[in-house]
Request: fold
Amino acid sequence: MATDEIDAALATYEELMDLEKDFEDVETEIIRQQVALSKSLYEKRAKLVAKIPNFWALVFEQAPPDLDQYIQPSDSAVLLTALSNVSVSHFEIEDGGKGDPRSVSIKLEFSENEWFEDKVLEKKFWYRVSKDGEEGLVSEPVPIKWKSAEKDLTQGMLDLVIKVWENDKKQGPSDSTKIKKEKDYTPDEKALKEKIEATGLGAVSFFGWLGYRGLNISEEESRLAVEEERKKRAERAAGKVPELKEVEEEEDDEDDEDDPLALEIFPDGEEVALAISDDLWPNAIKYFSQAQEVDVSDVDFEDEDEDEEMGDDDEEEKPKANGS
Reply:
């Protein structure tokens, strides 16, 4: 292929990628407008559901599959008996903020219970972009004050995540593209890795979600990455053809095997956050209604069983009456 054809193909590809980014920008702006327009409606809903006992517990009981698959039977016991309120906010654009509307805060409120002392568990997710183009929600682990080790549904894993995170904070911001190798793990990181492997991801409590961190993208790295991407898009829009760069070969083949989420006790934390903020939260009334339908169906089914049993009793009694 001639050089001119390569340049033309590259330019077309870059234009398509820029167009895709334009679509994303529109979708992000729609979220911003939707949050503003629906604010008063959510406030009105909050006042109404506060009058309904166990509203949010019943909503969680009808949780969509994307969320329900992560709720263990032991988690259900907590949610059904102690969950009193749920709220979602786009904190970076509240009070006129100009941040990213995709950043969300999810707050779970609980009544007095036998598992933990906390009345409020709030988890924030920041939408970040890494310098190598990775995008998504990142978070900080949220501790839980368990009433005893026996009541800890995460079996000590959440506490270990907190210890690892606090140690990482002391080291200062790091490069998201530099992943720590297992041979360099601290004792706490080794203990956490062993606990994850021994437990198995399918058996981790829903409350392990509070330990999710995501990719290690700092606010500064994300800001610089966004600025750099905007600069490149502006240059391409002005007709500047990007230069081809040679792909550098990895010096260490082991880098390909490094997993940035190796110490995550809840790797699907972002998916759960989106299931709550984009589905459960806006559709709470629908899920509550489904819970009512299930209750009514159960009652009707029980009534039918009772009627059938009574009918059977009458049939058994009739021959006795005729033969008396």
Q: What stands out?
A: Strands lie at 83-89, 104-110, 120-129, 135-139. The two ends are 104 Å apart (CA to CA). Residues 179 and 260 are 6 Å apart (CA to CA).
